[in-house]
Design brief:
- This protein has helices at about 5-15, 70-85, 95-105, 120-135, 160, 175, 185-195, 220-235, 250-255, 285, 305-320, 325-345, 370-375, 380-390, 410-429; strands spanning about 40-45, 45-50, 55, 110-115, 135-140, 180, 200-205, 235-240, 265, 275-280, 350-355, 360, 395, 405.
- The chain is an alpha/beta fold.
- It folds into two domains: about 5-70 and about 320-429, Aspartate Aminotransferase, domain 1 (Alpha-Beta Complex), CATH 3.90.1150; about 70-320, 3-Layer(aba) Sandwich (Aspartate Aminotransferase, domain 2).
- The strands form three sheets. The chain has a seven-stranded mixed sheet with strand order 4-10-9-8-7-5-6, with helices on both faces.
- Strand 11 (about 350-355) and strand 12 (about 360) form a beta hairpin.
- Helix 7 packs parallel to helix 8 (about 220-235), helix 12 (about 325-345) runs parallel beside helix 15 (about 410-429) and helix 14 (about 380-390) packs across helix 15 (about 410-429).
- The mean pLDDT is about 95.
- The chain binds ligand KE4.
- Ligand KE4 binds near residues 118, 146, 211 and 242.
């Protein structure tokens, strides 16, 4: 058994002064009945906890660390900026460079605004869609998670499913009265809402590949039908690419599936590990964002130079070394093929969903294509799986409803070692 004394002590200290002892609920490990590991340091594909245990990391800070932890080039860029200052509350060339870089890499994102989190990015994009269309209603999908702004905490995924919160306390009915929900991958459920509320729907916001009910891929044609419906009804299509942006490829899911959203949101990877979010898209829509127009949005640390230095460095590496995507996608495929083969050999009924470097093992013997089928998963079995993997030295998501992230720092050896641990778990069942 791994030593966890120091993590245990830190958990007790944390719980005295922080709700649940965490700054984000999923880190509490409540869904997997384990002592949350307090991480002391990290490098490449590995993290090390307060008791000196080493893990191969498949969380990667929930997505930002596509190059692995503490890439020397990013560290150098951050150090260089730190010598010149941390934050000015004034414009800098770095922000311009970031916006030029993003809009050059993602041409349908014609202008972009930096914020400090994915939550802020999606909240702002939805406000903008409402402001641009003059309509109040929005459509989101059951099981998709777009951060914790009031109007989007309706049948949300990620930590909301993990903690089993049917709906969030503290969100007044008025804030969600205009939030309509549809079933992911069921275009008729979207059509019905447009038919029921003609001329009232400002936008459809979606994760183009869902990552917050576990990884769920869009069915063939689903995103294209969404695009067509939004165009037909004068609603905006918002792709929440906080997970998929710059992960599925330099152009994210929009490029991979050949769909042009009206607005797109980013986070995670564009910050290189620092707190960053962004929203952007069609210039005519972005042209009503303050100070140009009447849709207000602001942020003390938006475009923070240290965060920009980290994010620009990471994006430039991804731009200049496209073979990184070949590597992480191949490693993701190796992982999925290995898990499926191990399950077949041991006669275990699981489903493995994934795309590129994103994977989820569902303890579920039906296909998982939406919120309802994801909820059929055996979270008790997932918890046992999590504990086995943790004890074996693999740090995977402490929730059935999240993704495994592979980085460019992972090796085939890491994947094969992890596969042997998974085989070991299946053998115990
Ligand atoms: P943040 O506010 O946490 O930076 O981003 C919110 C968000 C928005 N959109 C999507 C598609 C997201 O996945 C997220 C946040 N992702 C979760 C993990 N699935 C963050 C982890 C956590 O909450 O601790």
């Amino acid at each position: 058994m791994m030593k966890t004394e120091n993590s245990k002590k830190l958990k007790e200290r944390a719980e005295r002064v922080m709700p649940g002892g965490v700054n984000s609920p999923v880190r509490a490990f409540n869904a997997v009945n384990e002592i949350p590991r307090f991480i002391e340091k990290a490098k490449g594909a590995y993290i090390y906890d307060a008791d000196g245990n080493k893990y191969t990391d498949y969380v990667g800070s929930w997505g930002p660390l596509i190059l692995g932890h503490n890439d020397g080039r990013i560290v150098e860029a951050v150090k260089k900026q730190l010598e010149k200052g941390m934050s000015y509350g004034a414009s800098t060339e770095l922000e311009v460079e970031m916006a030029e870089l993003m809009t050059s890499l993602v041409p349908w994102c014609e202008t972009v605004r930096m914020v400090n989190s994915g939550t802020e990015a999606v909240m702002s994009a939805v406000r903008l869609a409402r402001g641009f269309t003059g309509r109040d209603k929005i459509i989101k999908f059951d099981g998709c998670y777009h951060g914790h702004s009031d109007m989007l905490l309706v049948k949300a995924g990620s930590g909301v499913i993990t903690q089993g919160i049917p709906s969030c306390l503290g969100v007044p009915k008025g804030c969600t009265a205009d939030t309509l929900t549809a079933r992911y991958n069921d275009i008729s459920s979207v059509q019905r809402l447009f038919d029921e509320f003609p001329g009232e729907i400002a936008c459809v916001v979606t994760e183009p590949v869902a990552g917050n009910m576990g990884v769920v891929l869009p069915k063939d044609g689903f995103l294209k039908q969404l695009r067509e419906l939004c165009t037909k009804h004068g609603a905006l299509l918002i792709f929440d690419e906080v997970i998929t942006g710059f992960r599925l490829g330099i152009g994210g899911a929009a490029e991979k599936f050949g769909i042009r959203p009206d607005l797109v949101t980013y986070g995670k990877i564009i910050g290189g590990g620092m707190p960053v979010g962004a929203y952007g898209g069609r210039k005519d829509i972005m042209s009503i964002v303050s100070p140009l127009g009447g849709v207000y949005q602001a942020g003390t640390l938006s475009g923070n130079p240290v965060a920009m230095a980290a994010g620009i460095t990471q994006l430039k590496i991804l731009r200049d070394e496209p073979q990184i995507y070949d590597k992480i996608n191949a490693l993701g495929e190796r992982l999925r093929a290995g898990i499926r083969s191990a399950a077949d050999k041991s006669g275990i009924n699981i489903k493995v969903n994934g795309i590129g470097s994103l994977t989820t093992v569902f303890f579920n013997d039906t296909g998982v294509s939406d919120y309802d089928t994801a909820l059929l998963s055996d979270t008790g079995a997932y918890s046992a799986y999590f504990s086995h993997m943790l004890e074996s030295g693999d740090y995977i998501a402490p929730s059935q409803f999240e993704a495994m992230f592979v980085s460019a720092a992972h090796s085939e050896r890491d994947i094969d070692d992890t596969l042997s641990h998974i085989e070991g778990f299946f053998a115990k069942l």
